[in-house]
Amino acid sequence: MVEMQQDENIPAKRKRKTEMAGVGCLIQTIGFVSLFFFPIGTFLGVILLIYGSMKSTYFTCSNCGNRLSDKNVKICSTCKASFS
Ligand SMILES: [Zn+2]
Q1: Tell me, what's the pLDDT at 4?
Q2: Domain coordinates of the chain in residue numbers?
Q3: Measured in angstroms, how far is the CA atom of residue 11 from the centroid of ligand 1?
């Protein structure tokens, strides 16, 4: 039996994931500590907290589980699945 290789239109979805450990978490921790150093630290802390949560959120391909470099990626670079 020959299996047909499907290269296009594999239905897949971007899965949103949050990283608990890593750079994003570290940035958020620093941001939180900075909040106590009023006023510059507070201002900086808010920015770091937002930036940290952006960094700790990433998307993966539901088909192969590959981590996507961008949430706007249309086609998975690993399994060529297209995201709707
Ligand atoms: Zn994939």
Answers
A1: 56
A2: 20-83
A3: 10
Taking a C-beta distance cutoff of 8 angstroms, is the pair 14, 59 a contact? Answer: yes
CA distance 17 to 80: 20
pTM value is 0.63
Does an H or E element contain 14, and which? strand 14-18
Cα of 80 vs centre of ligand 1, distance in Å, is 6
List, edge to edge, every strand of the sheet that includes 67-68. Answer: 14-18, 57-61, 67-68
Among 53, 14, 15, smallest CA distance to 31 is for: 53
Ligand 1 centroid–CA 19 distance in Å is 19
What separation in angstroms does the CA of 65 have from each of 29, 44, 60, 79?
A: 28, 34, 5, 9
Low-confidence ranges of the chain (pLDDT < 50): none
